[in-house]
Protein 1
Amino acid sequence: MSDSRIDNLERHCPRLGGEISFRYCAMSGEDDGFCWKILDCWWEAFDVENYLKANMPEAAFQALMATADKPKNKIASILQVVEQAKKKKGEKSP
Ligand code: SF4
């Protein structure tokens, strides 16, 4: 089940550095599945957890949730710091 309103939502991607749609996030992970950061990236925009639960096989959803609960790996942490620095720099610009 796909929802075009959700599929067309856009946000800045911390991995790619540009605006991308949720549709891309839903097929940019391993084996053309959901990106592992999808919960982190979209929870503020809509109830992404329930959306995924309704649209993924139960085992895949549980695997994604288990990944989300793990501490961020080093690269993810570095990307998060870079993203925060970009935001701070943007806030200071006139
Ligand atoms: S879920 Fe993945 S592809 Fe989508 S914005 Fe986040 S990091 Fe980028």
Protein 2
Amino acid sequence: MELKVNQDNCLGCGVCVIACPVNAAISPENAGGNGAKTEEVIMMVENGFIKLFSTDKCEECGTCQMFCPVNAIWLE
Ligand code: SF4
Ligand code: SF4
């Protein structure tokens, strides 16, 4: 499966970024809502939209998809 995003639908809320357990392990400041500080994370919000970075680290758990309120991130 592959991680996909649709920036047109994204609200920039950052919920997926915080909910992702892999992101939390790579960039603990995520958990405080401060946003990732490194592009080593799978994805982060940049300029108000979700952007993918190190997608090879995705473990396909589906948590981001489950939490996104507008289905702007999903596994395909
Ligand atoms: S599927 Fe899981 S590991 Fe992959 S980006 Fe979403 S929350 Fe993170
Ligand atoms: S993809 Fe969904 S959960 Fe993630 S920042 Fe965009 S709207 Fe929020």
